[in-house]
Amino acid sequence: GAFYTPETIDTARLHYRNSWAPILHAVALWLNSTGFNVSESTEETAAAMPSSQKRATSIMLNQTPGTPPTTKSLPEINKDRMHLILGVSIQFLCSPRPEEPVEHVTSCLQALHTLLDSPCARIHIAEDQLLGVELLSVLHRLLLTWDPPSVQLLVTGVVQQIVRAAQDYLQEKRNTL
Questions:
Q1: Which among 72, 127, 147, 161 is most buried, taking Cβ atoms within 10 Å?
Q2: pLDDT tens digits, 108-140
Q3: How far apart are CA 25 and CA 162, in angstroms?
């Protein structure tokens, strides 16, 4: 429209470049505190929701415009959300630019740490071994290339969570046998 000009594009890009990492961390905090938990309060909220809002919600979850609305289960939605956070984090941590502020790296690592505080995320990362190995590989490279102790401490914290998730998953499998 009339309000979106080349000047506003540059302003939006600058704003996004400066705020994406804290937003990623905020989303991870939100998911950890509410998004992965299925409780009666969420079911009661959904039951109290007007039908028009339920339809809008199911349409928003639909990935392809023009197709009939399909609803996803909560585990599928949470898996998609988790993959989005992991994808953005891994993509950024694979090749952070030298001019990137250290705060973006720490926010991204804090988002991963917060995400892996959730039992749901730990189970998923332990079940999907390729995802865990990829994340560990990226974290190893980050540990070798970034000097600030704060970054290295956060990297080791995330690595500990991944290893603990794998250990818990293996212990659970042993207990079921």
A1: 161
A2: 999 999 999 998 899 999 999 999 999 999 999
A3: 18
